[in-house]
Amino acid sequence: MAGVWPSRTLVISIDCPVARVYEFASNPENLPAWATAFVHSVRRMANDWVAETAAGPVAFRFVPRNELGVLDHFVRLPSGVEILNPMRVVQNGAGSEVLFTLFKSPEMSDAKFAVDVQMVERDLQTLKSTLEK
Fold first, then answer.
1. What is the CATH class of 7-131?
2. Are 106 and 116 within 8 A, CB to CB?
3. Which of 4, 44, 47, 53 has the maximum number of C-beta atoms within 10 A of its C-beta?
4. Percent of the chain that is helix, strand, coil (3-state, to 5)
């Protein structure tokens, strides 16, 4: 990977304590409830989780649980390439900010990147509405 890829960090405020947001978002079994643009279902396989997506099954794993609110996760494409998706929940008063960074790889078109941005924005909005009920 040479050079710096373009990126976009998406942020959403959630009126919910950091610990609750982290617990919910870090549980792979909850992904189908809020990451609806990407994930239809999940299942455990060996050391990874597998998400059923519109593009087929995709393996993923979160970084180890931590006290810093880091929800980074790696997605392994069918080609074997692993992509890092940096994600974090931080305190904002009595609530939380969730930050998700998307990278635009050299092979990705601007149009595809724009679609991915919209999908993540929709998923973050779903996470917010789910946790603020």
1. alpha beta
2. no
3. 53
4. 30, 40, 35
Tokens at 65, concatenated: 């649980």
pLDDT in tens, 26-49: 999 999 999 999 899 999 988 789
Strand, helix or coil at 27?
A: coil
Are residues 38 and 123 in contact, defined by beta-carbon separation less than 8 angstroms? yes
Token pair for 130: 């789910």
56-62 and 48-53 beta bridge pairing: antiparallel
Please report, for the chain, how many H helices and E strands are present, in that order: 3, 8
Residues of the chain with pLDDT under 50: none
Instruction: Report pLDDT for 93.
Output: 97
For the question of whether the overall pTM of this predicted structure is more than 0.85, the answer is yes
Maximum C-alpha span of the chain: 44
Residues contacting 101, CB < 8 A, separation 6+: 7, 8, 9, 10, 85, 86, 87
Burial class (CB in 10 A: 0-12, 13-18, 19+), 123: buried
pLDDT of residue 31: 96
